[in-house]
From TrEMBL:
It holds the Pfam family Casc1_N. GO terms for cellular component: axoneme. It comes from the Eukaryota. It comes from Notothenia coriiceps. Residues 327-337 have a biased composition (Polar residues). Residues 1-48, 273-344 are annotated as: Disordered. Residues 25-221 form the IC97/Casc1 N-terminal domain. Residues 1-12 have a biased composition (Basic residues). PANTHER family: DYNEIN AXONEMAL INTERMEDIATE CHAIN 7 (PTHR20929:SF11), LUNG ADENOMA SUSCEPTIBILITY 1-RELATED (PTHR20929). The lineage of its organism: Eukaryota, Metazoa, Chordata, Craniata, Vertebrata. This is Dynein axonemal intermediate chain 7.
């Protein structure tokens, strides 16, 4: 039997092979260790070399730091002085031009002139709609100037005077609208539509659209009416379709109510010597000099002040039959009435329909609300009203005038007593009323519009009490129902187009540039030429009145905000929009220097700006002069800090962020001196010829949009 072979015992050949492999492994490990040591030594030496280079560059930067800062300060100061001088001269010229114009409009900064203007217009007995609308146009111009003074004012005492003048003026404008409505309704019977048997009319001018319907036939099958030429319509419940009423939809392109809301919010958050929205009695006459001494300026009953002896018909729809007093008959020739004999007989039916009318209604109105109701007040920082205000009212149809032998006979009623609580409770049980609106063609809604109604008691917009909202995007039409007849607005989120996806600022020539913003919902560009700006966008609807028109930077900003295209920010924006959280001083310094070199350099968004930390800013820059687009591959990355700026080695296409200095680059204490290192001699000289107004306009636009923060 052969002997068994030993298990696991290596032969000599196998042992030799294993020893050879072990030796090779040892030699390889020793070689790798040696290479690692050599590599570490090289890295150490390279690090020391780089450290010495950086120390040398930092020392060089420190040596020229004072000179660079002084040069930058001189450029900025020179531009600031020139701009300030120009603006002062422009303001003086505007004052002189106003004086020479002599169009009858008062100086909004002089309270005595404003009060005199208001008093004279209030006493004007004219109620012809054409004449009144012309007068309102002048008054609206004055109101706009007062709004500007309120917005720019820094003295609380002066600001209070401007607010009082604005409130009185917008109250009077609204009062005049009521008087003209009353005048039209008193002759409704003479203007009956042959098809419907009712009176319906539309009056338009540049500032308002008035839609008025009088229910003369009282057809129980009547559901509602659409004013085709105005794009407005309404729906009524059955009990109103058979009532003696008139419906008014007054669309104003301006929005005084939101201004009142902002002033009320300012008074809540900033204590003032006296309130503009109190409820105390006020004097009937406005002093010609000095400020008006009244606590209830915001809600003063103008009509009650000036027409205390006028009998008015202000009866509710549901209970007016049982509360009518004996009618008096007033005979007069068909001629304008005297001021003291003219009074509006129109009542917004808040008592009868649970309506809460405008804050400027001549009648003291109350809001009936459940104390447990959650008030959904609109934050006017988060939402922006667009397209003006829609005043949706129902009035008791006044007795119709009769012509007898050349005399006009009208019937008037005495002022009613206050309703009881039971009547008010009954009133708010009315079914909701419907309304439809074609979106105004001078605004852009980037999202589905929100609807808010006016709360006159709280001086605020609210989103509760609005139901059955239906939005037809293709037709740009929104329909909804409300608990009562009230003023309402359409809104959208203020910062719907933020944060930006990208941006670019590039020159088109000397003192000319193009600022392009790719927003969250819409892209647009602003062309800058000297101190003028022009909006460009592919958006067609809502911007025809802005596109291609030159205006100043502040004027364009206001126009874009009013049109619903907002790319501008303020101190509250970070509460509603995510941002990169940059240091504001470093950011402002960057915008100053970008504006100085806009005639010679193009600047653009970089994805690495969000990765470089709050203390640094990062953007793409290249020298560029002409109107053509910047060629691909021309951009370089620049890192800006509070103490120094540098060009980076990485590009926009790099896989990871690195703050390493560009090979051969240097440190500079200012951004403009950093840029000059890579610019041609002609490019360096080009910014020296930039207009101070162009530089100021670019800087203001950058500071207003803050693209380095919100992109």
């Amino acid at each position: 039997m052969p002997p068994k072979k030993g298990k696991g015992k290596l032969t000599k050949a196998q042992k030799a092979t294993q020893q050879q492999e072990d030796e090779e492994r040892r030699l390889q490990e020793e070689g790798e260790a040696k290479l690692q040591v050599e590599k570490e030594e090289q890295e150490r030496l390279e690090g020391e070399r780089k450290k010495k280079v950086l120390e040398k560059l930092e020392l060089k930067d420190q040596e020229r730091r004072e000179g660079e800062l002084n040069e930058l300060h001189h450029l900025l100061e020179e531009n600031h002085t020139a701009v300030t001088t120009w603006k002062t001269d422009a303001e003086e010229k505007a004052k002189w031009d106003r004086y020479l114009h002599c169009d009858g409009s008062p100086d909004p900064a002089v309270q005595k002139d404003v009060n005199t203007y208001i008093s004279l217009w209030r006493e004007d007995p004219g109620v012809n709609i054409t004449l009144v609308l012309k007068q309102c146009t002048l008054a609206l111009k004055l109101a706009e100037e007062l709004e500007g003074l309120i917005r720019d004012n820094t003295d609380p005492k002066e600001g209070l005077k401007y607010q009082e003048g604005f409130i009185l003026l917008q109250e009077l404008i609204h009062h005049k609208h009521l008087l003209t409505t009353d005048e039209i309704l008193q002759t409704a019977g003479a203007n009956i539509d042959t098809e419907t048997g009712n009176m319906q009319t539309v009056v338009k001018d540049d500032n308002i659209t008035l839609c008025l319907w009088a229910n003369l036939k009282k057809n129980s099958r009547f559901k509602g009416l659409h004013f085709e030429e105005a794009g407005l319509g309404f729906e009524l419940p059955k009990q109103l379709a058979v009532s003696d009423i008139a419906v008014r939809i007054l669309h104003t392109r301006y929005d005084h109510l939101s201004t009142l809301a902002r002033m009320a919010d300012l008074r809540i958050n900033t204590p003032l010597p006296r309130s503009l929205a109190g409820g105390e009695e006020v004097p009937a006459e406005i002093p010609e000099q000095g400020e008006t001494k009244r606590e209830g300026g915001a809600v003063e009953d103008i009509e009650a002040q000036q027409q205390q002896t006028v009998d008015e018909e202000v009866q509710s729809i549901q209970g007016h039959e049982g509360r009518k007093s004996a009618a008096s008959v007033q005979s007069r020739k068909s001629s304008p009435q005297l001021p003291e004999g003219r009074g509006s007989r129109i009542e917004t039916q808040m008592e009868a329909l649970g309506a809460e009318g405008e804050s400027t209604s001549p009648l003291g109105q109350r809001t009936v609300m459940d104390s447990s109701e959650c008030v959904q007040a609109v934050d006017l920082l988060q939402y922006t009203p667009l397209g003006g205000v829609f005043y949706y009212n129902v009035f008791h149809l006044p007795p119709q005038a009769h012509q007898v032998n050349g005399w006009e006979i009208r019937q008037v009623f005495p002022y009613p007593e206050e309703k009881s609580h039971s009547e008010e409770t009954e009133a708010v049980t009315c079914p909701p009323v419907g309304v439809s609106v074609t979106l105004p063609d001078f605004v852009v809604f980037l999202e589905t519009p929100q609807v808010a109604r006016w709360d006159s008691a709280g001086k605020q917009w609210r989103m509760d009490g609005i139901t059955e909202v239906s939005y037809e995007e293709a037709e740009a039409k929104i329909s909804f129902q409300m608990d009562s007849f009230q003023a309402f607005v359409l809104m959208q989120e203020t910062y719907a187009n933020l944060p930006f996806l990208s941006w670019e600022l590039r020159p088109l020539g000397q003192d000319s540039a193009l600022f392009t913003v790719n927003g969250a919902l819409i892209d647009l560009s602003i062309t800058i030429q000297g101190d003028q700006c022009m909006l460009q966008s592919d958006q067609e609807r809502g911007l025809s009145h802005l596109k291609g028109k030159w205006m100043s930077g502040p004027a364009l900003q206001r126009a874009m905000l009013n049109a619903g295209i907002n790319i501008f920010v303020n101190e509250y924006t970070d509460k509603y929009v995510s941002s990169c959280g940059k240091d504001p001083l470093t950011e402002h310094a960057a915008y100053e220097q970008m504006a100085l070199f806009t005639s010679a350099c193009a600047f653009s968004w970089s994805k690495w700006n969000a990765k470089c930390g709050a203390e640094h800013l990062l953007m793409q820059v290249c020298e560029h002069w002409g109107p053509d687009s910047v060629p691909k591959g021309s951009w370089s990355l620049y890192l800006l800090g509070a103490q120094r700026s540098q060009k980076l080695e990485i590009t926009e296409q790099s896989e990871a962020f690195s703050p390493d200095l560009y090979p051969g680059g240097e440190f500079h204490s200012t951004f403009i001196h950093m840029l000059q290192d890579d610019m041609s001699p002609e490019g360096v000289a080009r910014p020296r010829g930039s207009s101070c107004l162009f530089v100021d306009t670019v800087q203001s636009l950058l500071c207003a949009t803050r693209p380095l923060m919100y992109s």
